[in-house]
Amino acid sequence: xxxxxxxxxxxxxxxxxxxxxxxxxxxxxxxxxxxxxxxxxxxxxxxxxxxxxxxxxxxxxxxxxxxxxxxxxxxxxxxxxxxxxxxxxxxxxxxxxxxxxxxxxxxxxxxxxxxxxxxxxxxxxxxxxxxxxxxxxxxxxxxxxxxxxxxxxxxxxxxxxxxxxxxxxxxxxxxxxxxxxxxxxxxxxxxxxxxxxxxxxxxxxxxxxxxxxxxxxxxxxxxxxxxxxxxxxxxxxxxxxxxxxxxxxxxxxxxxxxxxxxxxxxxxxxxxxxxxxxxx
Length: 280
What we know:
It is built from nine helices and 15 strands. The chain is an alpha/beta fold and about 280 residues long. The longest helix has 15 residues, at about 240-255. The mean pLDDT is about 95.
């Protein structure tokens, strides 16, 4: 079985959406992990969370293996979501992920997806030595935090891109990383999200525009993580690159209709929507 390790903090997220405030599990390892499992990959979480983390049974239910020992409290955010806009505030940050953690498991591929500068760049280099495919969502490398924890973006150490095969970012993050042309010369596969305006997918310098399906947005969190992890999963399964991108867009879009315990939509429905996107 093909395997994927996901590196980043598990979180506790306060979500403010449509006038309600709810506490729920968060962080890329969870959303990427359940996506990877659903697509049939053996999945490992290389993460950190504290003794206040209340979702161990949920990780067990999804059969997610993890290495996460930490004494610090779990990373916590407040995310205020309105349409395509999100305001995020960091309330608490767990300790950094350690280099030796990636030695705990054997895996074929690695997805680096930090949220709050918790992944040392040396982990990227060390991970590259272990795997055949390396992917990144750079959000946690770009994020900076004001004195009261509000998130804003800064620059990326672009030498990290030399180790990466697949990268996913949104439009705002792209502005802090560089031009599309420069990125395409460094990274073989790019996926850039533009909210409701769709997706730009570039594979080996050839670009495609993919529309976003119209869905009723009930639970928007995790869509970005589901996008990158489903793309990686289908690359690893040997799917055509453009079809893999369509699957990732379909999976992420449909997930926004669904509650956390049923976040990943049935794969038959994902494939049905992806086939439609592929023809557009």
